[in-house]
Amino acid sequence: MSEGPVIIGVTGGSGSGKTSVCREIFKQFQGKSIMMLEHDSYYKDQSHMSFEERLETNYDHPLAFDTDLLIEQLKQLMAGEAVDIPVYDYTNHTRSEEVIHQEPKEVIILEGIMILENQRLRDLMDIKIFVDTDDDLRIIRRIQRDMTERGRSLDSIIDQYLGVVKKMHEQFIEPTKKYADVIIPEGAHNTVAIDLMVSKIRMILNAH
After folding, report:
1. pTM for this one?
2. Where does the signal peptide begin and end (predicted)?
3. Which of 29, 78, 131, 181 is geometrically suited to a Cys-Cys bond with 12, CB 3.0 to 4.6 A?
4. How many folded domains does the chain comprise?
């Protein structure tokens, strides 16, 4: 284990429950030196493209992310330096002018669908978690989320899932399961796995 912060990577397909897993872990360390970092914050700036071109972006592909910037900022946090995390504007499909100032912490929970796909990013992690959830359950969760939170129609969600999301999952996300130290079935509902991870993080923090 490194002398710097402990970096825990949490990944899984869209709708797997990885965000819920991160929140459950985070909740156990309220008041401690812990932070969450989302790969989604690092979608590439598309301000040089027309709005129509931006709509064609495949957000389920590794090339949609500015992973170089994420790695650079993670290294700064590891060195004890504060960073300005980009904020993505999902309405205009590009990076906003806003940033979130983040001071370094002892534990960094890094979350995203593609975080195990990049070796340089993988190599920075102390613990790698894959949240493994049945495809049927993931699509149902995605439908519920996109209809409720994003006002999308059922047809558009299904078209996007079958046209892009499913293929990208099979090509880029599912294969990264082999890099995981821990596989958590059924996400945040798996309280035994969450408790084990929390105990492990406590041990690491106490050892620092």
Report:
1. 0.90
2. none
3. 131
4. 1
